[in-house]
Give the backbone structure.
Amino acid sequence: METTILPEVTALGVIIKAILILAIIAAIAGFGTFIERKILAFMQRRLGPMYVGPYGLLQLIADGIKLFTKEDIIPQHANKVIFAVAPAITAATAFIALAAVPVFPDFTIPFVDIYVPSIASDINVGILFVLGMMAAGLYGPLLAGMAQANKWGIIGSARTAIQFLSYEVVTGLSILAPIMMVGSLSFVDFNDYQTDGLWMVVYQPVAFVLFIIAGFAETNRTPFDLLEHEAEVISGYATEYSGLRWGMFFIGEYANMITIGVVASVVFLGGYNDFWIFPGWFMIVAKIAFSFFFMLWVRAAWPHVRPDQLMWLCWKVLMPLAVVNVIITGIVMMLV
Amino acid sequence: MSLEQFKNRNVGTQNYKKLDLSHSPSSGWGEFKQVVSRTFKPELFVGLWVTLREMGNALLGGKMHTTQYPFEKLPISPRYRAIHEMLRLMESGNYRCIGCGLCEKICISNCISMETRYDENQRKEVSKYTINFGRCIFCGYCAEVCPELAIVHGQRYETASEQRASFSLFEDMLTPIDKLNLQQEYQGFGAISPNADDNIKKTPLAY
Amino acid sequence: MYEVIAFYIFAISTMVLFTITVMSKNVLYAMTALAAGMVMISGFFFLLGADFLGVVQLIVYVGAVMALYAFSMMFFDATKDIKEKHQNPSLAFVLGGLMALVFVIMFSAPIIGENIQALYPVGLAEGLGAFGNAQDVGLVLFTKYLVPFEVAAVMLLVAMIAGIILAGKKMDYSLTECEASDKELEDEILKGGAK
């Protein structure tokens, strides 16, 4: 360990960081809907939202007003408490997961001299915490589907359960090999491991690909968007939701996309280290932005898979590959 | 041709050939090879590249498809039969209508009504002329029967209105006298679009 | 101070949630309360400095076990209350209460007698605990408790294989690809249609 003396982490710094995460990520997550619509439109040679504000930039506000003022419908036979709580679970777990993720490098606010740490809460099992919180995020769609007394909802939540449970295995196993190499579960250690050497993706390309694939499944993105696939199950778990509650599912989904982007950037793509002439904060933002863009890009390009193909892919391809990758990593580490 | 062939409507047992069936592997090794080849074929990345290329074309190459409709309009085919227009004579600026009444006579939905009288030069003058667009079926007979090419179909296709019977007066359909130089001669029903050449594409014979 | 406040918040919410789990007649309430209670329990681990165990509690109980419960509950109508049939409610109450009492006495007796000692205290600077939470758990697990650990692993493996065998009798027969995997039909089609 380097013996650099870090400034003291004050409660104020942590609070600033937490507010930064909540404000920025919530705004970006909302803005992500605009970016998604724009990029999907460009890839289909359309313009996307254009009329609200310059280039449609204020579309987000228009959508927000629409969602806020929409009638909040709770179906007659639904379990009202659970139905109301479920969207909050999705949004809350998505943001709690972000608490243990380094979104920017450490910095000190000039003039007032407040040190803001890179992570709101640097628990030394950061990666597991994020995985655990994303696992807990499963309850949002699950309870939503079960509470709404709707057959599409129940199919959607059943798909949620199998998809999230199955792909958690792949996520955990694929990230295990980098954990073995670094020897720590803290994101900061992961970042420091890649400060001087190559990026982790060079050592662990298989784990990276597996993690990205499983990340798509855990964030419910297009090749694996079976939970709410319109053509099959109307909107899955979100069938009966309207207005702000539905918006909370949306915010949670986009926050999860950002979380996966941050984890992939920090664990595999060199984190917030300086690179060539680019400073660390620029690198991490660029990497997160690229992974976000990649998710939209894939959505524009690829069709989604069937549910049985999804399970086949998880248990017969990805999981054995992940196990083999872990074993090979272990053997190499023992020999070298 | 015998009758049985017509009676056999069971389309499921016709001589369709499934093209992919011959490729399906029979052994475990074959399945494995199929999985490996499908895994490492760059087809997925071809898809990614195509979407990215189209995005580049749209943003940088100016190949955006969108027409921002209320602000931009695509040219409409001259064959299209939209709201009628009354044309003027290019030389004198008088309206071409001679008040013969053929259009009123031929109108199959009885939506044209006109009244004429003789003016001081003993020339026939249209005193009233209305078309009820709530009844008009835009059949085009009036334009076809007009001996003077006075009533034609124009380019105004946005015909939504607040009332079921929306009448149009002669003066509204008449070309404004100050825009006489912009008046287009009617090309007729068989005419091709002004941008017909642009719309010609290579037929994808491979499909 | 903060720890005490947090402890009481976690303790009260855990008890309330588990009471709901036991008392509620609605499957969905019971399941949600149980899952939330598991999250609250992981809070205790974090308070005691056992980050790794707290996260494992989250992943295993909240993420996996409870999700499986939820999956099995999709076979019922989760929005309806369950009609419970008690033959003898007082007997159930007395037996349940007695069992709870016995458990409380069993677990509190060593604490009252101040007879409880951590053999491998986690997070202390002597020997163990010098590395970190996850490493401590690993060291204990692979030295002192190696045999129980392996036995548990073998048991889980046995259970998994048994589950696969019970569930997977017709695993190679795919219902969705039923038509395509029907060899005779396939051959017929290849030969050029049924005559």
